[in-house]
TrEMBL record:
Signal peptide coordinates: none
UniProt biased composition (Low complexity): 227-239
GO molecular function: ATP binding; ATP hydrolysis activity; transmembrane transporter activity
Keywords carried by this UniProt record: ATP-binding, Nucleotide-binding, Transport
PROSITE patterns listed in its UniProt record: ABC_TRANSPORTER_1, ABC_TRANSPORTER_2
Listed name of the protein: Peptide ABC transporter ATP-binding protein
Domain of life: Bacteria
InterPro entries, per the entry: AAA+_ATPase (IPR003593), ABC_transporter-like_ATP-bd (IPR003439), ABC_transporter-like_CS (IPR017871), ABC_transpr_LolD-like (IPR015854), MacB-like_ATP-bd (IPR017911), P-loop_NTPase (IPR027417)
Length: 269
């Protein structure tokens, strides 16, 4: 299933001699269950591409489709609904409210929308992220890696079609970064989640099953990585390290590998 589709995206900043082309007719498709990395040097257009695909920025021309819905021409209220109901976001900063517990931070977007996640989905998310014994803790009682996992749970709890992650390991130490990457890969395997991640880190990209490289606003390479996502990250650092991903080859479009542990496999909406 096509979850995200970009068609001939072009993004231009400025005018005349000051014009900068950030994206130059970029087209790509992200399918369900993929863990895709977007890479490139500074100024390559990788963050601009993610922001356009996520409805956070408007392309100068071209179209973006989320689960078949064309974002082009949507009004702000419509885009807000799409972002709230179908997209999840993870950034470098954790953006947790300090007065709330981990559980309250995770559930806050759903409560603001007057919604309640299913108990099975909630339990699966908390289990995959290894947060069961941290739900009553406030952010200042959690490590950086634990805070980022709370932010991931908050992004995931609404069962989004896709999670967009912009340099999610940028504020983490090496061990916490490896932990988070293994967790993201495990989410794709066990929950059928789709993740699109911008990163400048080759080691981070190696945990995904697809690497899209940009330079000067154009895609220069788009390669399927022939390993199960997450196998390049040290498993012992991951939450629930009882599971070990297999090394069977994968190809795009991605399929959902078999569940590597006892966590129930639930389909992302």
């Amino acid at each position: 299933m096509r979850v995200v589709e970009a068609r001939a995206l072009r993004k231009v900043y400025g005018e005349g001699n000051a014009q900068v082309v950030a994206l130059d007719t970029v087209s790509l498709t992200i399918t369900e269950g993929e863990f895709a990395a977007i890479m490139g040097p500074s100024g390559s257009g990788k963050s601009t591409l993610l922001h356009c695909m996520a409805g956070l920025d408007t392309p100068t021309s071209g179209s973006v489709f989320i689960a078949g819905q064309d974002l082009s021409g949507m009004k702000d209220k419509q885009l807000t609904t799409i972002r709230r109901d179908q997209l999840g976001f993870i950034f470098q900063s954790f953006n947790l409210l300090p007065t709330l517990t981990a559980e309250e931070n995770i559930l806050l977007p759903q409560r603001l929308a007057h919604r309640k996640p299913s108990r099975d989905w909630y339990d699966a998310v908390i289990s995959v992220l290894g947060l069961t014994d941290r739900l009553s803790h406030r952010p200042n009682e959690l490590s950086g890696g634990q805070q980022q996992r709370v932010a991931v749970a908050r992004a995931l709890i609404g069962r989004p079609k896709v999670i967009f992650a912009d340099e999610p390991t940028g504020a983490l130490d090496t061990a916490s970064a490896a932990n988070l990457l293994q967790t993201l890969a495990h989410m794709c395997q066990t929950l059928g989640q789709t993740v699109v991640m911008v990163t400048h880190d080759e080691q981070a990209a190696a945990t995904t099953n697809r690497i899209i490289r940009l330079r000067d606003g154009r895609i220069t390479n788009d390669d399927t990585v022939h390993h199960t996502p997450g196998t390049h990250t040290t498993p012992s650092t991951a939450p629930g390290a009882r599971h070990t991903a297999d090394h069977s080859p994968t190809s795009r479009p991605a399929t959902h590998p078999g569940t590597p542990g006892p966590t129930p496999r639930l389909e992302a909406r």
